[in-house]
UniProtKB/TrEMBL annotation:
Protein name per Swiss-Prot or TrEMBL: Helix-turn-helix domain-containing protein
Domain (HTH hxlR-type): residue spans on this chain: 18-116
Lineage of origin: Bacteria, Bacillati, Actinomycetota, Actinomycetes, Kitasatosporales
SUPFAM superfamilies per record: Winged helix' DNA-binding domain
PANTHER family named among the record's database cross-references: TRANSCRIPTIONAL REGULATOR, MARR FAMILY, TRANSCRIPTIONAL REGULATORY PROTEIN
Amino acid sequence: MTQTVPAPLPADFFPADCPVQSVPVLGSRKWAWRIVRCLEGGPRRFSELRVPLAGITAKVLAESLRSMEQDGAVVRTEYAENPPRVEYALTPLGRTLLGPMDAVCEWSRENLGSLLAARLEYERAER
């Protein structure tokens, strides 16, 4: 029985017009997708975001929001009130993430059982 050896992966495997590394809002921030989901219904204050994002520190939330703002996915609006009020909202670009997120969630619902079974089988084989 002969096996076909696949060709080595070239250094330019990822084409320049598909810059996987430069799409930080999709993966470089652990909390980004959860933040997007929290902002789906409209603008929220920082303290409102901390409630469903149990486990996130204020520092990490601030860094994540800043990064998402830099990427153009979130807009920060300051209101000249006393006390000052700041809200965060999805931009039109940020809203384009909702469709792909829905697709990933649907895939997860459909395949979670198989994924967990595969992990369990792998762990049993490793022992």
